[in-house]
Amino acid sequence: MAACLQLNAKSYRAFLSTTSAPKHSAKPARMRCSAASPSKRYSITLLPGDGIGPEVISVAKNVLNLAASFEGIEFKFQEMPMGGAALDLTGVPLPEETLSVAKQSDAVLLGAIGGYKWDNNEKHLKPETGLLKLREGLKVFANLRPATVLPQLVDSSTLKKEVAEGVDLLVVRELTGGIYFGKPRGFGTNEDGAEIGFNTEVYASYEIDRIARVAFETARKRRGKLCSVDKANVLEASMFWRKRVIQIASEYPDVELSHMYVDNAAMQLIRNPKQFDTIVTNNIFGDILSDEASMITGSIGMLPSASLGESGPGLFEPIHGSAPDIAGQDKANPLATILSAAMLLKYGLGEENAAKRIEAAVLDTLNRDFRTGDIYSPGTKLVGCKEIGEEVLKSVDAQVPASV
Ligand SMILES: NC(=O)C1=CN([C@@H]2O[C@H](COP(=O)(O)OP(=O)(O)OC[C@H]3O[C@@H](n4cnc5c(N)ncnc54)[C@H](O)[C@@H]3O)[C@@H](O)[C@H]2O)C=CC1
Ligand SMILES: CC(C)CC(=O)C(=O)O
Ligand SMILES: [Mg+2]
């Protein structure tokens, strides 16, 4: 079963049943249960990538496997090279075989790509180009990035407690269009003979309509508020974005639509983040605003994401990068990747019980005060990537079975 965003009104219902933001309900671990015999099998492509990618994927894979086993699910994992690791191995950042295996699987779990070693490569030989090609190849245009301030981590937020407490927002980022993909792009010389670099922000009507529908449907399942973020006071592409979003809004009279310029949105996220429910925006603004939103929750190491298309497998990845500054030191926070694995189960495979088991295990681990350095606060236990992963596994294992 592959992740599927059915964007016509008739067949939207299947997707809608799984579009609400993860609800975290911490339940204390009470009894151990044994795994059911496998009855469902899924193939998962693992793309560890670079830097901390392999560290967080190794931990998340174990958590995914254990949580799923309680629901009678068995995985066939296939690990493939991607990003800088693939460049070193094959000379390209997204080998054809990697894309082909990913396309044929039920879901794809990615760590992160990139690093200093490849920073000065030509564009087509950059790890980041491989990631864009992967998203394009899988046609995963809708990137859901939930930012929820967990009560356990309010003190880790860089904002005052009263500002951060209770924040629960979702950025719906358009992922396969806009300036990251627009043409023309490149380097050249202008009429004055000066060297230039240029990119193009361009959106077709169908690209805006489909992401707007995902956002309206998602907002409808949440608190019914959608804020479209653009730069329509300056950019033609944004003026067009706003016009199309307003047109699609007529299909959703029950959703309260507002518009905000991106500079103001960046400021409002820090001033009063609780005003936001669902945000829909283009590729580059969504990239930037979701990193900003992550710090409200305590750390970029906490934010998962799901990227979905109209058909085919979904792509699930933490929103952070390869963090070369801490790579190989067992310092990475794997919770964003673990929560991405929960999104994989929920949005990618429709396996809600296993997803809930992971979410509850993360909360239980935080309740037991285990913290990596990025979310550490005095009085909690500082541990590394592997150790917090072991603690999450214990919490998965110790839960009352959800459906077995
Ligand atoms: N999806 C992807 O694979 C992405 C890849 N990148 C690539 O990653 C490389 C590094 O980019 P940066 O701009 O430094 O962004 P980054 O997200 O990798 O790191 C930013 C800061 O956050 C910290 N951080 C990130 N993830 C963390 C985690 N799980 N636990 C604890 N701390 C964490 C890092 O140590 C660093 O100080 C670049 O090559 C960039 O292109 C960047 C963003 C997304
Ligand atoms: C590395 C980029 C291609 C993407 C990025 O920063 C992101 O998707 O968050
Ligand atoms: Mg980013």
UniProtKB/TrEMBL annotation:
Domain of life: Eukaryota
Statement: the UniProt record of this protein carries the keyword Oxidoreductase: yes
Record flagged with keyword tRNA processing: no
Single annotated GO MF: 3-isopropylmalate dehydrogenase activity
Record's protein name: 3-isopropylmalate dehydrogenase
Oligomeric and partner information: Homodimer.
Family, per entry: Belongs to the isocitrate and isopropylmalate dehydrogenases family.
